[in-house]
Design goal:
Length: about 550
């Protein structure tokens, strides 16, 4: 399908509307290529047919026609560098091929034709790129190609064109996949102001910043650093932003013109090393160790591709030991609804599970998020918005007088992990909605509800729930009016209103529709504990 934006001297003429996703489209200007001798002339009946010809040819980056009776000239990659606008002496109409997710009816020519880079193949970030810049007399095109001659490629130099001839060699068992993307919602290393900034190096539990002059240097720094799972190159500040495994869940897909580029570390096995780049990101499972340093030995992750995100979900084996208040059998960075308070006790087995109704849950900051967006993120992580009835301030005692706790918001021993928030007052979406059929408030997920409504009613804030045609969703308010027993309260709100974060929950991994740890371990050729470094998190890492 063709998309074009025609820009005479002052007037913008838009052709066709569609597309919120990145696609090849055409920005059409009044201008003429400086030279025609490197082009391919073709006979066409109209300029629309001229741009059609360019769209059908992968190598074509630009189409030109002087007038309706002249031939159409197609310019391949690396064949033209200067376009002279008509006001500066040019003559005719030129169409630039761009790759963008801007709606066709709202293409921003000033943005798309000034300093933006485009790929010949949508996901290839290493070769056959071109950058368009605006100059005083028109526009210039610069061609970028990082590829090395085939005879010198080692592990494909991590380029897009997989599989590599040596991709299954032992020295290539850890690869880096390059994508146009930026760190998405819930990433732990992002600052909490919803801005495109990163935490300083004072907090190295989730990531680190390092100096780097190019994306390639940043990528190789991540490859060398066993903690790193993904690296983003901040071009403006010449900084390599590296985030650890289990500390990000979503990479937001972008286009080359946006300039956001990430390298993802993936371990290979005999099957994965024969896949294309797109296949590696399409619902595949990976062992975390030994490619990346982890808190847990029996840890693995799954990569999926959606229209908007590359999704990374990290899991623990059902029989992995627990760590602090992260429960065995739950996804990484989830708490378990039943947890022994004496979890360090030597006489307790690490593999002991409590009940068959253990719920995994997590709280995450997500400034400015709506309730539908929160439901989507939970769903992509294999979870649902949290139901409060199993998440109250409840204390339980078992037969051995061990103190078990069920999601206790008043427990201050783990303030950072308790909510995932760094402030005292927060609003968090929970799975509570008004039923349009009977007007009653109901929990979206009833799996873990333990108490009848009359025994433990919904802890609404005073004056809640407010009535209104749009008051159909509810968020939990922490520190802004609370129920004396629970330490928090609920507020009715329009579903499209924005709050500070989300709460998601699920059953344990043995009930999720995912591979078992043993299956993933078999795919990589080993079982049990594997490959833990001899030194821990205090070891030295390359600069």
């Amino acid at each position: 399908m063709r998309y074009r934006l025609l820009i005479p001297i002052l007037l913008q003429f838009l052709i066709q509307t569609n597309a919120s996703n990145a696609e090849y489209k055409f920005v059409v200007v009044s201008g003429e290529p400086a030279l025609l001798n490197a082009s391919e002339p073709v006979q066409v009946a109209s300029f629309d047919e001229c741009t059609d010809k360019c769209e059908q040819k992968t190598e074509c980056v630009l189409a030109y026609q002087s007038n309706s009776s002249d031939p159409c000239y197609l310019f391949d990659w690396n064949s033209i560098t200067q376009i002279i606008k008509n006001e500066a002496g040019g003559n005719g109409t030129t169409a630039f091929k761009v790759y963008t997710d801007q709606p066709a009816c709202e293409l921003n020519s000033d943005y798309l034709l000034n300093g933006k880079t485009y790929p010949m193949l949508p996901n290839d970030t290493t070769q056959n790129l071109w950058r368009i810049d605006t100059s005083e007399d028109g526009w210039t095109i610069t061609y970028i190609d990082f590829k090395t001659p085939p005879g010198n490629l080692i592990c494909g130099n991590f380029s897009y064109n997989r599989p590599y001839p040596d991709g299954c060699n032992p020295e290539c068992n850890i690869t880096m996949v390059q994508v146009w993307a930026k760190f998405g919602p819930l990433t732990k290393f992002l600052t909490k102001d919803a801005g495109w900034k990163f935490e300083s190096n004072t907090n190295r539990r989730t990531g680190i910043n390092k100096t780097a002059e190019t994306f390639e240097i940043c990528m190789y720094k991540c490859h060398e650093d066993q903690r790193c799972a993904a690296a983003y190159f901040d071009r403006e500040n010449a900084t390599c932003v590296m985030v650890w495994t289990g500390e990000f869940w979503f990479l937001e897909r972008t286009s080359a013109s946006d300039g956001h580029q990430i390298a993802i570390k993936l371990p290979m096995n005999d099957k994965l090393c024969k896949m294309t780049t797109d296949q590696l990101l399409d619902d595949q499972y990976y062992m975390s160790l030994p490619a990346m340093l982890t808190t847990f030995e029996r840890q693995f992750f799954r990569v999926q591709t959606t229209e908007k995100y590359y999704v990374f979900n990290t899991y623990l084996d059902y029989y992995e030991s627990f760590y602090f208040n992260m429960r065995n059998g739950c996804p990484v960075n989830n708490r378990g609804s039943a947890l022994r308070q004496d979890y360090y006790s030597k006489n307790k087995t690490a593999y002991e599970h409590f009940f068959n109704e253990t719920m995994c849950y997590r709280y995450d900051e997500a400034p400015g998020i709506t309730q539908p967006e929160a439901k989507e993120l939970c769903q992509l992580m294999g979870q649902k918005l949290l139901s409060d009835k199993y998440a109250g301030s409840i204390r339980m005692i078992d037969a051995q007088d061990d103190n078990l706790q069920v999601v206790d918001f008043q427990d201050t021993r783990f303030d950072m992990f308790r909510l995932g928030f760094y402030k005292n007052s927060s609003r968090i979406w929970h799975g509570l909605e008004k039923d349009p059929a009977d007007g009653k408030w109901k929990w979206l997920d009833t799996r873990f509800l333990q108490f009848p409504e009359d025994a433990m009613p919904i802890p609404w804030a005073p004056g809640e729930p407010k009535e209104g045609p749009d008051m159909n969703c509810a968020y939990m308010g922490w520190g802004e009016g609370y129920d004396p027993f629970n330490g928090y309260a609920y507020y009715a709100a329009p579903c499209n209103s924005t709050v500070d974060g989300i709460a998601c929950s699920s059953a344990q991994v043995n009930e999720m529709n995912i591979k078992k740890y043993t299956e993933v371990a078999d795919d990589f050729g080993y079982r049990g504990t594997c490959c833990l470094p001899t030194t821990g998190w205090d070891q030295k890492f390359p600069e």
